[in-house]
Design a protein that fits this description.
Blueprint: H1 9-23, E1 32-34, E2 46-48, H2 51-63, E3 84-87, H3 89-92, H4 118-131, E4 135-138, E5 142-144, E6 159-165, H5 178-191, E7 195-200, E8 204-206, H6 210-214, E9 221-223, H7 246-257, H8 269-272, E10 275-276, E11 284-287, E12 290-294, E13 300-302, E14 322-324, H9 338-341, H10 356-363, H11 365-373, E15 377-380, H12 388-401, E16 406-409, H13 416-420, E17 425-426, H14 430-433, H15 437-449, E18 457-458, H16 474-485, E19 491-495, H17 514-519, H18 542-554, H19 556-560, E20 567-571, E21 577-583, E22 590-596, E23 603-608, E24 615-617, E25 624-628, E26 631-636, E27 641-645
Parallel strand pairs: 3-4, 3-19, 4-7, 7-15, 15-16, 16-17, 18-19
Antiparallel strand pairs: 1-2, 5-6, 8-14, 9-10, 9-13, 11-12, 12-13, 20-21, 21-22, 22-27, 23-26, 24-25, 25-26
């Protein structure tokens, strides 16, 4: 079992707040926080507080929390019992504290930060606990680059230094750095029984990453004179995702599907000739915020942006703020393409081509965060696209330090391979199936027959998808999805803002139509610019989330059991109905879920249940439902659900 650090950073934060409270004792503040950060009672509103006293009171409450018992060598298998709350610190904890109608940057007139901070994340811990979560998943918290940034703040995935935190997540008035405040956050979270999982990106870095100057050989370089191709254009004289014709694409897809990686089709020569050898360290300088290198023949070179690597004809816009790391070094593969950064050609992946110092630096990232912050796990962004040997070393090194350490894969496929690679969970595809009743029923049928080889996240949304409350059915659909997901043998995942009926997406990376994309310019999205949730939304439903979490907790061991024998379909006759039961091995506990996926109309149904009782009690409404001849006959309102034991 890993040792917990004494509560030092939290006390340092507490001392800083006390000093400010004393120094500004005579000062009057206009500082508002959402009422939900204080209490679930009453209508949502903003509450005026003394900020220093408010945060001191929160820390006092946090210190009264009960740390969870942590078993020994679990290999991260505690994950299957996780209920996750996903936090994007900058946005999740943002609030218009002075009430002037906007989020001031970098701070407001009184010096308080209105975008999110670790201090405010600590303040949210009691609220997150009330929702029923026991694990916090943080989107990347590392320092952010500037070259090619969209919006006002840039993407947290454009990492300037994997070993440094984004200082914009600290509260400047307290004169503590982000490292101290994050340590305090983890200490506070552990004190309240949470585990903390942080997301990391290992394949890419910001184009102006600190490593560019230190190790230019860790990056790809192109001639400075090469212009950038506009999205959806096909001018091969400009840099962008390499272009392939129809026949070439067919061959590429065929070879990859057949796992023929020994001679993958390369990009055209015109594209490969954009790339040069890396410049020497002393020949790299920063000009106007961009790194420029000069080769021995005086040719000026620059860092190229990245793009979606698979499939080769993916229509995503280029990623102008990040670049791919040069994981292998081979003169014939000196370019960025699907066969060098994703579907690695076997000629490239020979051991002598490994960029060993870079791999060593990458492998050391997680141990640093284990040592400095005592995090409990990581989500690896696009982890399935890392070389297997690198991934194995990352997992082995982290688990040597902490045998309980969890690994999650941002992979929408749920396959045995992820389990074999050491992962405890994958994101999965529930989010894309959930709003299609037929596909959701198919997912449930698979749970009842063959099951899945690894736990996946039960959620209708994440930071790259449309919000559940923005789907057809809006809040009704969001509430419905939470009921169903709480009883699947999967991992409930609350993307922050879900419970507030937030409709604005963090990013538009997945499942958006062209029409939607036109209405959602990327530079305005929270992934790139300041944004705060509507904490006063009258349609929010945190109490609904909390109620379902309490019910789930009562049956947690049964619900988490992935064995198909514990999952039984109850009715397949109504296309709009999803009905299943969770049944214990001794048959003493039987829990039924009946959910109307028709969000526009009532649905009547007769469900056969093995019960001699004359009625059952719906655990959601506490109403009796009559049982006749071992059948329950009900008419469900649009989106209505029943949960009952029988």
């Amino acid at each position: 079992m890993k040792k917990r650090s004494p509560i030092r950073a939290l006390e340092e934060l507490e001392d800083a707040l006390r000093r400010k409270l004393k120094a500004k004792a005579r000062q009057r503040f206009t500082y508002y926080v959402p009422s939900l950060w204080i209490s679930p009672a009453g209508q949502p509103k903003r509450v005026k507080v003394n900020p220093f006293r408010f945060y001191l009171d929160v820390i006092k409450k946090v210190k009264r929390g009960r740390p969870s018992r942590r078993k020994g060598n679990t290999g991260g298998e505690w994950t299957k019992h996780a209920v996750i709350y996903n936090v994007f610190v900058r946005t999740t904890t943002a609030f218009d504290h002075d009430g002037n109608g906007k989020l001031d940057l970098p701070v407001n007139a009184k010096g308080f930060r209105e975008t999110g901070t670790f201090l405010k994340a600590i303040a949210m811990l009691p609220y997150i606990k009330r929702l029923g979560a026991n694990t916090i998943h943080l989107l990347p918290i590392t320092s952010i680059g500037h070259d090619g940034n969209k919006g006002t703040l840039g993407s947290p995935y454009a990492i300037r230094n994997h070993y440094k935190l984004d200082e914009n997540q600290s509260e400047p008035l307290l004169k503590l750095d982000a490292k101290t405040e994050f340590k305090a956050f983890v200490e506070a979270a552990h004190g309240m029984g949470f585990r903390v999982v942080v997301e990391f990106v290992f394949r890419t870095a910001a184009k102006d990453a600190d490593w560019v100057k230190e190790h230019p050989e860790w990056f790809y370089w192109i001639k400075e004179t090469i212009p950038i191709r506009d999205p959806h254009h096909h001018d091969e004289s400009r840099y962008g995702s390499p272009l392939f014709n129809h026949d070439e694409l067919q061959k590429i897809h065929h070879d990859v599907s057949e796992h023929r990686f020994d001679n993958l089709l390369p990009p055209h020569n015109i594209y490969k000739e954009f790339f040069t050898l890396p410049p020497a360290t002393e020949a790299v300088v920063k000009e106007n915020g961009k790194y420029i290198g000069v080769l021995p023949d005086d040719v000026r070179v620059k860092i190229p942006g990245a793009f979606a690597d698979w499939p080769p004809d993916d229509n995503q816009p280029p990623w102008g703020d990040v670049t791919y790391l040069r994981l292998y070094d081979h003169p014939d593969f000196n370019y960025i393409a699907y066969n060098t950064v994703r579907m690695y050609d076997l000629r490239l992946t020979q051991p002598h081509n490994i960029n060993a110092p870079l791999w060593e630096k990458i492998v050391g990232i997680i141990p640093y965060y284990q040592r400095e912050f005592h995090i409990d796990g990581v989500m690896i962004d696009m982890g399935h696209a890392l070389p297997m040997e690198l991934k194995s070393e990352i997992v082995k090194t982290a688990r040597n330090r902490d045998p309980e350490f969890a690994f999650w894969d941002e992979n929408f496929s749920v396959t045995r391979r992820s389990r074999e690679e050491g992962y405890n969970a994958v994101f999965g595809f529930c989010w894309i199936d959930q709003h299609h009743p037929a596909r959701m029923k198919a997912l449930c049928r698979r749970l009842a027959t063959e099951g899945f080889p690894i736990p996946f996240f039960a959620t209708p949304e994440n930071h790259n998808t449309p919000r559940a409350a923005a789907r057809p059915g809006d809040v009704r659909y969001a509430r419905w999805s939470w009921v169903v997901n709480c009883f699947l043998p999967a991992i409930p995942f609350i993307h922050s803002g879900f419970e507030l009926a937030e409709g604005y997406p963090i990013n538009t990376g997945l499942d958006f139509s062209r029409e939607q994309l036109k209405l959602l310019p990327s530079e305005k999205l929270p992934l790139f610019s300041e944004y705060g949730y509507d904490w006063l939304n009258k349609n929010q439903f945190p109490e609904w989330v909390a109620k379902l979490s309490r019910i789930r907790r009562k049956y947690a061991d049964l619900i988490a059991n992935p064995e198909p024998r514990t999952f039984r379909m109850l009715s397949d006759h109504n296309d709009h109905l999803i009905a299943f039961a969770r049944v214990s091995d001794d048959e003493k506990t039987k829990l039924a879920v009946v959910a109307n996926a028709n969000l526009l109309a009532e649905e009547s149904v007769s469900i056969k249940i093995d019960s001699a009782e004359s009625y059952v009690i719906d655990l959601l409404s506490r109403k009796r439902k009559e049982v006749r001849d071992h059948h329950i006959h009900v008419t469900l309102a649009p989106g209505e659900c029943l949960v009952f034991e029988y």
